[in-house]
Amino acid sequence: MALRHPTRHFASSTLVLRLPTRPFASSTARYISTTSPNHVQGSKSRETTLPNPDPSGDEPYSTMLKFHSNFMLATYDRAPPLFLKGKGSYLWDVENRKYLDFTSGIGVNALGHCDPGSVEAISGQAKTLWHTSNLYYNPWIASLSHLLIEKTRASGAMHDAATVFLCNSGSEANEAAIKLSRKVGKVLDPTGAKHEFVSFYNSFHGRTMGSLSATPNPKYQEPFAPMLPGFRYGTFNDIAAVNDLVTEKTCGVIIEPIQGEGGINVASDQFLVALAKRCREMGAVLIYDEIQCGLSRTGTLWAHSHLPKEAHPDIFTSAKALGNGFPVGATIANRHVSEKIKIGDHGTTFGGNPMASRIAHYVVSQLSNPNLQQGVLSKSKIFVERFERMRERYPRLITEIRGKGLILGVQLTRDPLPIVKAARERGLLIITCGTNTLRFLPPLTVSQEEIESGLDILEEAIQATRR
């Protein structure tokens, strides 16, 4: 049984998956879900009290997925829907069921699914040039690098941003930042004593061995221990501990201005100012990981755009929304760092290729729009006001609302997974983070109507799972 394009037959099976050629209409009845034989042959129409019930497991495509999953490395526990199409804030599955997406691919699809401008950039570049290698220049790698520096400085963020290293993912961007910090430390102290690296509990910086070593979560680290030597961990927002944490042996410090995977924990301005001051005193490179919280998700281009210059980083990293779904990452550094890097110190095969660079150039141009950023702030207010009303209604369930802009967390007193499932089966996609925290990362282009509709579904899901 060979897995082929979803519009074609699967060998040894009568199953046919046809990708719709036009946007799907929503169900004609709120609580009726129809499985169309035009999409999954052999399935029967069924009625249910839920509009989007998770598959029972006996559907033809469920059987197909179980077979093909035997050939996939089991790194994710995937939810049941098999998605075939996206448009704006919505996804549709193989059974033509419509879902409002408040995850945006874990903060990736900031412009929404299949954003027309992104599609145009991809299709235009696909007809021109995909890859040349980094042995040569291409116009888009230079243009994107210049745009990132220009927009960063104009936004009030990293005032001395100077150079860009383009790569393929957030982990790679952080890996580069770690390596650059080690190189700076070695230049400042050729004995190698200045090699220690500092990160913070509840952080997440990636899954390569360097970025994983900076992610002090036993769930991620223990299967691959021992970690790289020289990593130390501190408590987020603990100003009093900064001086003991960052020493003359510290070459770099990495921190998320808003911890995403760790629970949507916001670093206080006072903490970031104190941390930056100590890094400067000790000659340590300060890195802001803005992979999830950057690119206008907080209402400013970068989450640190509001900070005074003395709290700006020496390096910051970006990925996720940078390509709106196309793999691309970036490590932005100041001259203090980049002047110590020599040709051959680091590299990448695919980073900065014309395709990724052109798409990212378009995305940065769109996400740096002040009107979009103002919209993020106004939409955030709608979310927060509704969350506060929910907290008043369910005081034993909801204890805190955290975050900025459209990176928001709702702290619960119990496991949120039943609510996630109940929401999904009612047509809303949400995810979790930290400990018992619901995480909301909708497209930045989500409409007020879509927000209200999604939060109505969330309340239905909470009510349905009350104990």
Could you explain how this protein is built, in words?
Helix 3 packs antiparallel against helix 11 (354-367), helix 4 packs parallel to helix 11 and helix 12 runs parallel beside helix 14. Residues 1-47 have low confidence and may be disordered. It is globular, with a radius of gyration of 23 Å. It has 3 domains: 1-70, no CATH class; 120-369, Aspartate Aminotransferase, domain 2 (3-Layer(aba) Sandwich), CATH 3.40.640; 371-464, Aspartate Aminotransferase, domain 1, CATH 3.90.1150.10. It is of the alpha/beta class and 467 residues long. It has a 7-stranded mixed sheet with strand order 4-12-11-10-7-5-6, sandwiched between helices. It has helices at residues 60-69, 104-107, 116-126, 139-154, 170-188, 209-213, 218-221, 242-245, 269-282, 335-338, 354-367, 370-393, 417-424, 448-464, and strands at residues 83-87, 90-93, 98-101, 161-167, 196-200, 231-234, 250-255, 258-259, 265-266, 285-289, 315-318, 329-334, 398-404, 407-412, 428-429, 431-433, 437-440.
SSE order and pairing:
Elements: H1 60-69, E1 83-87, E2 90-93, E3 98-101, H2 104-107, H3 116-126, H4 139-154, E4 161-167, H5 170-188, E5 196-200, H6 209-213, H7 218-221, E6 231-234, H8 242-245, E7 250-255, E8 258-259, E9 265-266, H9 269-282, E10 285-289, E11 315-318, E12 329-334, H10 335-338, H11 354-367, H12 370-393, E13 398-404, E14 407-412, H13 417-424, E15 428-429, E16 431-433, E17 437-440, H14 448-464
Parallel strand pairs: 3-15, 5-6, 5-7, 7-10, 10-11
Antiparallel strand pairs: 1-2, 2-3, 4-12, 8-9, 11-12, 13-14, 14-17, 16-17
